[in-house]
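Reminder to self: tokens first, then the designed residues, so the page reads top to bottom the way the pipeline ran.
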């Protein structure tokens, strides 16, 4: 690999302008293409084999109008009720406007009999139930905006308008602009301090931004081929900036070291590409493999995040190994121009501060090891209380329409209204009306009519005996009986509705029993009347819980319905009922991830072990690296749980209450963190391994200790600088209003900080010192099968040319 990258570095340096031109053309072309087709993201939560997906599939096949549920377009009046005066006209006009919107299938008014439950008791809050042709996986941002724009009559009249459901989620994407600016600003400062000159600082920023622009454009285009989640572009930005700057920094650092030793510009670039570039390629490949291993979970949303993030990392590796050499060649020795301080940091292999630190760790390895493990264990302790949940719209910024709809629905109808669940029922045999109860009702009506007629006849006879003429007596008796037994309009309406219900297939006794059983379950606020398709083969009704969608009690309710209530209600029948909808989909996602997380962890650890075995040609280093990385990830999980679930300091990151950890965050975090932590492992241990080989070749009796000390001393500064940049980039995204992005920001920032300090600068050197020469043990039989990668080594490269002496100056 080093020879290949050495030649590539030479080629990119020699043909610097064509390489830069190609990159510019590719970036500009991709950005234009992405802008032309537009971004298309998906909120698809389908998981083959889960109950929520079974519900969706059933409805797609037999009740397609109900498959995606409805989106509440919420109207709130500060003056008067919505069902009276001018407000009533405005609501009706808004409904008509929605019905004329292309993607709207239907819009049910809260003022209609069908939508009466969508009007609050005080009449000031109501919502129009909007059903779309497109589901959450097909809806575009423009289509979602058209739905909200259709409420213009209400906005003009002064009503507060917001939209929830998957339409609201599509429109509620907190901007990442300030996070990006802050992250890049922090990187600029750190690079200025670490590299000391303005040109050296600018190069990693330029390469990272180029890589991010390329990666995000590719993600946008990929969204038209596969289902890409909304958060993918934000994660791509976070990871792209972090690894893009880091990888470039490692290459620049090695280039400047060679340049300071008197090596020519092109040769310095080629050797930087061969050494640091090979480490970048290997480390980036580890990250890519770790991310792609998420596919094994069989979860579409997680797989898509893995694809997108791996794509961004791959672009960052390509940019560091092609664009960076071309830019270095363009600058040449001018990279040292415009210094920001009088005294530059030495580019030697042994910075004095880190050398003293390394010596201290080597002298007290047991104390260092115990201290490092102790800190990691303490940080990881809250992990035992970690529970996976779903995104909480209620903590989005208040200027987002989804949050506004959430708050209005909570105020008007209760928090459970924000996450209704669908119960899809496969009717076997087909549904039929409750003829028995209908006959009973008809018989009751007939008996009541007969009773009234008897009363009229009796009253007529009495009046005739009193001398009243027959016709007048019958008329007077009829009026008296009817006035005594007359029903109120409301009673008449209820009777008529009951008859209509019993005449419909929704009155099927099996279905009614299921609805009643669910409605009496603790935690259920309301159950709607079922809708049955014309053949009677499928039905659907809605459950509203008493708790918020993100509340753990809601998850327990769904599991209880599936495990106990529904089986008991359908026992002895051929009905098959499934609980679906977005809320249930997130619950199934959390359960599936909990089941798959151990498998993914084992796969990533095994792949990382094999890659490190290939890189370092030793057995114990990959084993200890895997253990240390697991401790690092556990510590980040613990901090994540403490902040978001326990609320320790959550007000510092813009939250006013605890929230659940998004189900896919730990799974995705593990892959990216295990991959990124391997970056620093590769850069540190490859340097230690190179020094160990040199000392072993020089005949030292115990070369391990000196290699560990010198390796840490020479690489710690650049590793900590790179980690500080990545921590700053990740931490800047905590400012984002999306709670899921906040969780990624906190988790990734903590993990990188822990890994680059406690693990890489304390735990790794102390463990390698205690293990001693066994670090480099490799069975002979295995040595014959493993190819030689040669990371961070120049053994296979041509010898350095002799430095050209400076010409002697002659006196005038």
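Designed residues (812 positions):
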């Amino acid at each position: 690999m080093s020879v290949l990258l050495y030649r590539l570095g030479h080629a990119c340096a020699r043909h610097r302008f064509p390489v830069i031109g190609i990159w510019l053309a590719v970036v500009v072309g991709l950005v234009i293409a992405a802008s032309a087709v537009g971004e298309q993201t998906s909120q698809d939560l389908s998981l083959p084999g889960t109950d929520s997906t079974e519900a969706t599939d059933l409805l797609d096949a037999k009740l397609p109008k109900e498959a995606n549920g409805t989106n509440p377009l919420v109207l709130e009046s500060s003056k008067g009720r919505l069902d009276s005066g001018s407000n009533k006209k405005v609501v009706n006009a808004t409904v008509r406007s929605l019905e004329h919107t292309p993607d709207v299938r239907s819009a049910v008014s809260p003022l209609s009999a069908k939508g009466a439950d969508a009007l609050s008791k005080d009449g000031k809050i109501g919502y129009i139930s909007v059903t779309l042709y497109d589901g959450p996986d097909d809806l575009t941002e423009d289509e979602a905006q058209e739905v909200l724009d259709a409420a213009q009559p209400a906005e003009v009249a002064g009503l507060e308008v917001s939209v929830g459901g998957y339409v609201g989620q599509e429109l509620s994407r907190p901007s990442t602009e300030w996070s990006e600016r802050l992250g890049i600003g922090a990187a600029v400062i750190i690079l200025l301090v670490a590299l000391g000159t303005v040109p050296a600082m600018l190069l990693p920023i330029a390469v990272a931004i180029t890589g991010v622009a390329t990666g995000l454009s590719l993600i946008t285009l990929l969204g038209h081929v596969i289902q890409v989640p909304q958060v993918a572009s934000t994660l791509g930005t976070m990871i792209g900036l972090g690894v893009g700057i880091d990888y470039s920094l490692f290459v620049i650092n090695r280039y400047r070291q060679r340049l300071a030793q008197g090596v020519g510009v092109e040769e310095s670039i080629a050797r930087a590409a061969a050494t640091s570039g090979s480490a970048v390629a290997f480390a980036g490949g580890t990250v890519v493999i770790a991310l792609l291993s998420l596919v094994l979970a069989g979860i579409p949303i997680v797989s898509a995040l893995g694809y997108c993030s791996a794509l961004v990392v791959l672009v960052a590796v390509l940019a560091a190994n092609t664009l960076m050499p071309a830019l270095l060649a363009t600058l040449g020795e001018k990279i040292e121009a415009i210094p920001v301080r009088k005294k530059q940091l030495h580019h030697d292999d042994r910075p004095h501060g880190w050398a003293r630190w390394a010596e201290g760790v080597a002298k007290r390895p047991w104390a260092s090891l115990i201290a490092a493990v102790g800190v990691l264990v303490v940080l990881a302790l809250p992990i035992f209380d970690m529970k996976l949940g779903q995104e909480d719209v209620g903590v989005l910024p208040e200027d987002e329409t989804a949050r506004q709809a959430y708050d209005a629905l909570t105020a008007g109808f209760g928090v459970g209204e924000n996450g209704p669940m669908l119960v899809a029922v496969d009717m076997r045999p087909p549904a039929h009306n409750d003829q028995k109860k209908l006959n009973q009702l008809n018989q009751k009506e007939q008996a009541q009519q007969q009773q009234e007629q008897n009363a009229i006849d009796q009253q007529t006879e009495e009046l005739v005996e009193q001398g009243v003429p027959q016709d007048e007596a019958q008329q007077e008796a009829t009026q008296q009986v009817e006035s005594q037994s007359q029903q109120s309009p409301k009673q008449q309406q209820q009777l008529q509705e009951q008859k209509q219900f019993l005449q419909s297939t929704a009155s099927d006794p099996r279905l009614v029993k299921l609805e009643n059983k669910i409605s009496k379950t603790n935690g259920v606020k309301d159950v709607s009347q079922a809708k049955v398709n014309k053949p009677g083969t499928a039905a659907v009704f809605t459950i509203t819980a008493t708790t918020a969608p993100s509340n753990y009690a809601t998850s327990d309710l769904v599991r209880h319905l599936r495990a106990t209530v529904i089986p008991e209600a359908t026992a002895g029948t051929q009905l098959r009922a499934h609980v679906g909808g977005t809320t249930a989909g997130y619950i199934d996602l959390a359960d599936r991830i909990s089941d798959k997380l151990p498998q993914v962890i084992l796969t990533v650890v095994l792949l990382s072990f094999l890659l490190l075995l290939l890189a370092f040609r030793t057995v114990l280093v990959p084993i200890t690296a895997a253990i240390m990385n697991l401790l690092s990830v556990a510590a980040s999980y613990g901090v994540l749980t403490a902040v978001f679930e326990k609320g320790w300091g959550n007000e510092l990151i813009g939250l006013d209450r605890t929230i659940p950890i998004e189900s896919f965050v730990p799974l995705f975090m593990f892959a990216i963190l295990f991959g990124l932590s391997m970056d620093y492992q590769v850069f540190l241990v490859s340097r230690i391994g190179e020094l160990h080989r040199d000392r072993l070749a020089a005949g030292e009796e115990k070369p391990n200790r000196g290699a560990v000390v010198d390796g840490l001393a020479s690489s710690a500064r650049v590793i900590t600088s790179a980690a500080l940049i990545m921590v700053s980039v990740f931490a800047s995204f905590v400012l984002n209003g999306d709670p899921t992005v906040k969780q990624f920001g906190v988790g990734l920032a903590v993990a990188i900080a822990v890994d680059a300090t406690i693990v890489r600068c304390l735990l790794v050197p102390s463990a390698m010192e205690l293990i001693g020469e066994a670090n480099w043990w490799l069975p002979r039989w295995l040595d014959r099968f493993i190819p030689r990668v040669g990371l961070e080594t120049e053994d296979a490269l041509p010898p350095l040319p002799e430095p050209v002496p400076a010409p002697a100056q002659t006196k005038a």
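The first strand starts at residue 71 and ends at 76.
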